Amino acid sequence: MTPAAAPGRAERFRTLAETAFDILVIGGGISGAAVARDAARRGFRTALVEAADFAWGTSSRSSRLVHGGLRYLEHFEFDLVFEASQERRTLLRIATHLVRPLEFHFPIFRDGRIGRRKLDAGMWLYDALSLFRNIERHQMLDAEAMLACEPGLRAEGLLGGARYFDAQVDDARLVVTTIVAAVEAGATVVNRAEVVRIDASDWPGHRALVRDAESGREVAVDALAIVNASGAWAAQVLDRVTAGPRGAGPGDGPASAVRIRPSRGTHIHVARERVGHSGALIFEAPRDGRVMFILPWREDLTLIGTTDEFFDGRPQDVAATPGDIGYLLEATRRLLPASKLGPEDVISAWAGLRPLVAPPGEGAGKGADEGAVSREFEVHQHPPGVFTLSGGKLTSHRHMAEETMDRVQAFLAPAGVKALRKVDTDKVPLPGARFRDLDALRGSIRARARAQGLEPASADRLTRAYGTRANRVLDLVERNPRLGERVIGERPHLLAEAVYAVRSEMALHVEDILFRRMRVGLETRSGTPEAARRVAEVVAPELDWTGERKAEEVKRALTFRAVDDGAIRELAARAQGERVR
Fold this sequence. Notes:
Blueprint: H1 9-18, E1 20-26, H2 30-42, E2 46-50, E3 65-66, H3 78-94, E4 99-109, H4 116-129, E5 139-142, H5 143-149, E6 158-169, H6 171-184, E7 188-191, E8 193-200, E9 206-212, E10 218-228, H7 234-238, E11 241-243, E12 260-271, E13 280-284, E14 291-297, E15 301-305, E16 309-310, H8 322-335, E17 346-357, E18 377-381, E19 386-391, H9 397-412, H10 438-451, H11 456-466, H12 470-479, H13 495-504, H14 510-517, H15 528-543, H16 547-580
Parallel strand pairs: 1-2, 1-10, 2-7, 4-13, 8-11, 10-19
Antiparallel strand pairs: 3-6, 4-6, 5-6, 8-9, 9-10, 12-15, 12-16, 12-17, 13-14, 14-15, 18-19
Helix pairs in contact: 2-6, 2-9, 8-16, 10-11, 12-13, 13-14, 13-15, 14-15, 14-16, 15-16
């Protein structure tokens, strides 16, 4: 593909080369997207480039939770829980269609680490740190009440537990929506564009060489400040910085002070009917006592996660392992004995890297328990004007961006570059979230969809994914009824969403659409090839694809999925071998 083939991409790439920016953000995950939105809303001339696709890495491979971090109380990270609790409330307000309240049950057992008194105390503290403004206050339940809520739980040794609330989000949709918000605030945003070199040797300003992964073209981008928000790739980006003796003043120390210790988190999808749970569950894994989740996803799927293992390889090579998947299945079978889950039940798997900030010291993090490494974030400046944002969690992304931009703004002020507007990212709704009542919006989208011959399940999906902008997807169906067809029969996603992803959300490949804009690529076991072919057909005219290019795009999407599918097949083969023996 050439940049011209994607709507507006050639113009955005030209703008990168022709504009003197105040801020260049590197990384299109949730952190980078939030920084770009914040910077643009303050009035800074802002650019963002992402080497792969938006949310390609960690930000589309999470547990999909917006939560206060109940388990962080064990490590006395009260500030982190307080901050996350406030941000959860903010996101429920500014992204109402994407972030939804989720009821949890936390069962405790006689053989577990956590007893009733400890859990009750933790729950009261959790409520207090949210200023008693969580969705509802917690309730402690005895064993009988817990089984009434979740009949499939292991009854042996069950002492009771707690009921409380957090929230759930489609992580990749949150990233893409935040990216769109940044663009609408004035930011220039380009995906599949990698920073290959940064010249920070001659202040004022820095120059980044950016290579277009689609065409190979390179452009120089000038910016007064750079925010490295590339997560697990942060060290790789810093290795591309050339700094000289001249500068705007001292930074925070050498680049080596950015202490990122990636931890791999693996998740799986299985059919809800095979698990036997009613709602969301948080519990201790039997093997090592780590906290895990069993979460409802859509109407018929279950998300199980997560593992927490330090990862020393290249970030782009992270993938689920047979051991990870086996760990998740084993824990679920122990908690819900009737499930009897095996590798054959796994619909899909995915793994991402948490860019954790390791403790200071030689070999930082290598001897620590992965779950004990803090989820706090740091902003480190070195060389002057190059800021690296590391650590943090999905829930706190908006606050992280605000604090990062406060530091960048202070850095730019002596050069006479000042914000035009005050910070307002906690008040302004994200695109699609300007409505008063979600149920009323759902009803209006259903009515319009019904008039177009669409099913309620598809209408509800549009409401949740796009909010008021679901009407823009339905406009495409109105103009071309074929786009009202499902991508595959078993899922509610519509072909119109694929066209919308290209026209309005900067998708460049079938892979981008299936796995990040729509997520349908992870919600089917055998339907991904058909989904890839149908999506390629409808977006080919949008992107000027030939028949050969369509075939390449289908192959590319299936290759993306095959990375984690290999671990499922290997685990299944091991299980079969054990049965044969």
